[in-house]
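Let us begin with a simple case.
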Amino acid sequence: MNNNPLDIKTALVLQGGGALGAYQYGAVKCLYEEFPNFTPCIVTGVSIGAINAALIVGGKLGPVASLEAFWKTVEMPTVPFVPQDWQAKASKMGNPAMYTLNPMAFISPMTAMSTYDLGPMYQLMGNLIDFDKLNNNKDSKLSVEAVNVETGERTIFETRKGYEVKLEHIIASMSIPPNFPAAHIAENYYWDGGLFMNMPLSPAINYLEKVGDNDTQRNLIVINLFRKNSPMPTNFNQITERIQELMFESKINLDWKFFAKMNHYVDLVNAIDAVIPANSPIRKMPGYKDIAKHKKINHHAVLQYEAEGVAGTDDFTPDKMTLRIRTGYRDMEQALQEYKTALESAPN
């Protein structure tokens, strides 16, 4: 394994999960404090993960300060003498920094297209993101996902030559129905990308395989927000919450055995490539050409937030925010220690 930091490329993958996204902020904060010059080659996100991703790549204040500004702004104030469980549900009536109740939901509930209006979110993100910086960031690529309402197809909005990611693309990725209205972009309407796939993994791996050469070390960091494990539900509300968790938690088990198998295939192709003639018909075989495109993923880390369930996605109270940030920071510390141990034990 090449230990030269100049030959390391890292992809950061951020799952959706509403207010649970503060966990991602805590993890990223730790990452940058441990490695001040950390620069992910790509950041992919869905829903709140797309918001965090955009702040990392194009935040006006820099990655950590922009995330901090966002999460401090959307935090709901504590109301004295009000029970905690009531305060946790206060955002059902709106979060002034993100969304307000849509009057049409009360005036004409049968014709209203959403429960809330996202005007405050557009303003907040517009204030925090430098879109020129985001679209012209030569070191970090941004990729966010939404789903086309009419076709049901996943749509990836990403920074690339000749294309600009705009505010409406980022908001589209978090427009979960029926809470939020569909984002109207060009001739299409888009909802939250988590409805299709709440884990934007493939754009991260595909891009990792395109950068660097065979000596490049490629790392993958995935931050999940929806817990996989939960006690058996005992009432209707818990059943509903568990259904939502199962719908939105990552269906992809990132097993190191999978990456090890792919790495073996890469080694095999490289060995074949070194001995067969340049005009060998093997080189023209579709299977050979497909495998030859793949590159090794040297290390991956999966952070999983397990402290709360789906009920926490709209809980913006200070205590819960602090819990998530601290837990994310702690989990990233542990992951980085494991990574350093792996580096120290690897052959040069």
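The second case is a distinct protein. As before, the sequence precedes its structure tokens.
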Amino acid sequence: MDIYLREAITEAKKGLEEGGIPIGSVIVHNGKILGRGHNKRIQKGSVILHGEMDAFENAGRQPASVYRDCTLYTTLSPCPMCSGAIILYGIPKVVIGENKTFSGSEDLLKKNGVEVVVMDNYECIEMMEDFIKNNQELWHEDIGI
């Protein structure tokens, strides 16, 4: 398995251990993790701290030229909010652990020139299926339904 997807999965597991939603993300620049994060909506009482947004926040303020050379790894297909941030900062490539449990806004990313790679990672699928089965109300809140 890709080492950076493995790091995103580690972040997702941290979120689950903290009582949150198991979605993790890392932003990689020139082979180095620039920012990492996991969904902290529950832990922080936040409306925006999805895994990708937390990774952006933890990457800190970067020049656009840096973000244009990054790859974002996420355990789950990005929602419209996170996809918007990916497009805004010019991230050219997104590697997605899985999109079976949530298809996200992959078409929006592609339409804006982002390369989208879906790994169909079994560990990511199983983690989300278990979470959704046991936390349906919380999951629906997270995806806005």
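The first strand starts at residue 24 and ends at 29. The radius of gyration is 14 Å.
Keep these points in mind for the review questions at the end of the chapter.
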